[in-house]
Write a structure and sequence with these properties.
With 318 residues, the chain is of the alpha/beta class. Helices cover 44% and strands 11% of the residues. Helix 3 runs parallel beside helix 4 and helix 10 crosses helix 11.
Amino acid sequence: MPRFSTYQPAGVIPAVLLPFNDDLSIDHASFKTHLTDVASVEGISAITVNAHSTEVASCTADEQRQVMEIAGDTVGDRLPIIHGVYAEGSIEAAAIARRAAAGGASALLVFPPGPFTLGQSAEMVLAHFRRIADATDLPLIAFQYPRSTGQGYPLPTLLRLGDEIPTLRAIKDWTPEVPQHEVTIRSLQGLSRPINVLSTNSPWLLSSLVLGCNGLLSGSGSVIAELQVRLFRAVKANDLAEARRINDRIHPLARAFYADPFVDMHNRMKEALVLLGKLSRAVVRPPLVKISEAEIKRIREALVEAGMLSGASETRAA
């Protein structure tokens, strides 16, 4: 049974990072510390593991099991844990779903299979989600990629998923086009059985939330969860002035984290946690490589601008 059997995905959901030792093994102690730190933020509704932020593409099935086990042991009594389902095929996706449910996950974040970059049909998408839904009754979150990648689902497909997969409860919407994002929010959250739209548009989070998202699920929550909670609450309270003040603090970090190449976003977040004294090292697994000192300096400047780091401090953890 899931630890939080009535959980429905909504609100502020940080996707945590995964620290590694210098030999590229998982740094269990640092991961526990990071989980505890993020989970201590008042107002978050859950955390996500085994997703992009934990470099899931570079983790074996056994390592994903370890990640879930550590997260459950560390914060599972306090918060629901959302487990990513990252797989090229539907059979493996269903196996991951079963392991996650057995490990105590409260919901699943379903990534689109890689082969969809070559083309997809609604029947293929439905077959993929049915196989996962047949493996567990956990709430499902569909990760909606940009349509330009080939892995994003057309709106009619999303509506069929909502109609034919009863356990689909939310989507993590990475739609980069504002009009399309708004139509998705209005369409899914306006259904007779609403499907929550969770923003992952962190480079323009204020704009996305103002359109009406019922939550957000973002790797930058590993660094700025408190600011995200304050922004989400201000938007929900229709306090635009406060929302803009908080967004002014988030903006320099969004600019630094989501610079080109985009793939380095979580690499940069690790460096931010090192600068903040919350991680001892910012090791990433290949094909990612450590970012340059010039870029680390830009991250430090963004933390200072955001009011999270003293401008007088030059010290970095070894």
